[in-house]
Amino acid sequence: MYLIPNTDYDPDGKLASSCLRAARRLGFAVPCPTLLPNEGPGMDPPRCGAPGEFFPTRPPCVVSDTVFLFAQSGFAVPPGYSQGGVGGGASLVIAAYRAGKGVIGGGFEPYYASFVLCPEAQPLAEIRVDRSPDGKRSVRGRLLLCAGVERPLDGYLILMWEEGGVVYQVALLHDTQTNRDLLSAISAGIELVGPIPKRPVP
Question: pTM for the whole thing?
Fold first, then answer.
């Protein structure tokens, strides 16, 4: 698997601009990826609202003014990589929403985030999430598997952590060692883009 830096897949800064617009609309820092899997042959560069995505959104990666949601499907994979998802392709989901009560420990979750949640997810491991892009060594996170439920994330391996009252998650279809390594690498390349206050009119 090859992870491509944003200087290659977002040379004009359109995705970065969408992240900033999303942060302004949502009012919290959103997870903007700086490393993503190489898109497959004939696929469009990663962006908000790409046609045919499992989780279709419109720029700037915002759903119902409450959830940040970025999805990439159909990226290039080597022989032997577990295929799945819509159309049999590989699928990545990056999401964020304000924390409800007990997000990490279970309990109530905000209803508006239900389509990116899996309360029934099986906890697999407590792990440290590299947050060096934001000047932190790491934060505590959890590795979860959503399986056997009728939810959009059914079958996904989820890496989840919480910062500043916001839940962040990165998910890939299927629990494999390759995907566990990819989740760690993609998460380490996420930059939390916060809203920039609008300047007052003179």
Answer: 0.85
